[in-house]
Amino acid sequence: MKVSILIVIVLSSFFTGCRTGSTSGKENVYAIIPAPVSLREMRGNFTFTIKSNIILSAVNDENKLAADFLAALIKNPTGFIIPVVQGKKGVSGSVFMSIDKALTSAEGYTLKVTSRRIEIKARTAAGLFYAVQTIRQLLPPAVEKDSIVNNLTLKVPCCEIADEPRFGYRGMHLDVGRHMFPVEYVKRYIDMIALHKMNTFHWHLTEDQGWRIEIKKYPRLTEVGAFRKETVVGHPGKNPVYDGNPYGGFYSQDEVRQIVAYAKSKFVTIIPEIEMPGHSLAALAAYPELACTKGPFEVGKKWGVVEDVYCAGKEETFKFLEDVLTEVIDLFPGEYIHIGGDECPKTRWEKCPLCQKRIKDEGLKDEKELQSYFIKRIEKFLVSKGKRLIGWDEILEGGLAPEATVMSWRGVAGGIEAAKQGHDVIMSPNKYAYLDYYQCEPEGQPLAIGGYLPLENVYSFDPQFAELSTEEQKHILGVQGNVWSEYLNTPQYMEYMAYPRMFAISEIGWTPAYKKDFEDFLARLKVQSLRYDKIGINYFKGEYRNTRAERK
Length: 552
Prior knowledge:
Blueprint: H1 5-12, E1 38-47, E2 54-56, H2 61-78, E3 84-86, E4 94-99, E5 109-113, E6 117-122, H3 125-138, E7 155-163, E8 169-175, H4 183-195, E9 200-204, E10 206-207, E11 210-211, H5 220-223, E12 227-228, E13 232-233, E14 241-242, E15 247-248, H6 253-265, E16 269-276, H7 281-286, H8 315-331, E17 336-340, H9 347-351, H10 353-361, H11 367-384, E18 388-392, E19 405-408, H12 413-420, E20 425-427, H13 430-433, H14 455-460, H15 470-473, E21 476-481, H16 491-498, H17 501-510, H18 518-535
Parallel strand pairs: 2-3, 2-4, 4-6, 8-9, 8-21, 9-16, 16-17, 17-18, 18-19, 19-20, 20-21
Antiparallel strand pairs: 1-7, 5-6, 5-7, 10-11, 12-15, 13-14
């Protein structure tokens, strides 16, 4: 018999507290982000000891990931070696993990903590892992230390939790094209994604200002395209000023494989983005024969939209992109490849004889349909390789590719339109999800691209739309926060802008709308901030509320 976690929610709703982050007058604190679907608070605590075990009902490589993660978490600050064993019974003071196919949610779990044992049930290994992340957030912040903490007692407050995600896609994006970040910081970003039960990392790898992934068949992409002569200082304006300092770098294929494997161990899938037809200046600097004009081209030094794009009239363009994507597909085992498709000026195509010939030969109406032809052709190739295409909402122009998934960034209208057409959609509207926007009043803040997006506004987003029928709403796969890096030139500044707004995105994707409460979120965030301090992330600690007259 299939058992929905939602049934458990109804049965336990009478026992569920609202202000889970509040510490006033409470024996235990349950500051979990994202908020679980159902939480029954109980008296007492479970304490890890040197005699504790982690007992799996069935041991395999996937199931063991959650157990090993918990064992390592306990070992680092205590020195306790917690054995991971297979079995159905065990000594008191142990953690029991089991796969329960009666649960319906692929990523859901149930968690029962008593003073004698912890019991986790999940349909899949991912659910076991997310239950462990909940335990982690219930443990004292000192558990995050990677060295022994004297006299540390690791206690988990007793409770019963039934939990599952609202949406299947819960993602974060990181742009490494404008400014790139070291491998260890990319891994740390993935750590924060996993801690907050998000499952997707959208890695923006190519831009006008830099090509960041090694492609062995085209070495000039990294020899030339990965480096720019200098970088604009401040906002470009009409008379940009440059710093005079060469900038660049890229990730080798070995580094990419290392990061992909690391993400997999945290149940995070990486979606690579290879931009086309626009945002391709770095590639054109390396291989100018792929452009409509002869150039010469150089890797972009300032931000903004560039007129030079891949020539849609040349067969060499599609051969090049298929070769590139073949290597990318070999590196990334996930279902999706993101091809960008945004901000592609048509001025070069309008004057290019080969592009105009392509329009005529293919019976296309105009340059918008030429872009649609371009995207559809790339999609056909990806489908032949067993992959699915994602593009920004501009891929709607001229007609969507048959199986394309739309990532809606220019508000929500494009996503709603795509859902009405029967296409899958990921909501990432700039009004709520662009985490490079100022998160408080700009005065006294590091330079950012502009905008105003405080934590309260991010948290207020709800990807449920009255314009969509029940069936159409099912095409909304989930949500994603975007971190663009024009002005985020250090890992520390990237973290400052991403956190804690990323954590609000996680709650939008996981927690039911009726459970969301911004004041409660702030209370839980205050508790978890001690954990973030121990981890050492440079999160923003300023004003989280919208202080402007126009609310939301």
